[in-house]
Amino acid sequence: MKTQQGATLIISLIILLVLALISVAGIRAVVLEERMVGNQRDVQLAFQAAEAALEHAEQTVKSFSTTPLASDYDWLYNRQDATPLWQQVNWQDPDAVADYGGPALGQLSQQPKHVAELLMTVSANDSLEVGAVDDSQQLYRITTRATGQSDNAVVIIQSIYRQ
Question: What are the residue ranges spanned by the domains of the chain?
Answer without folding.
Answer: 7-162
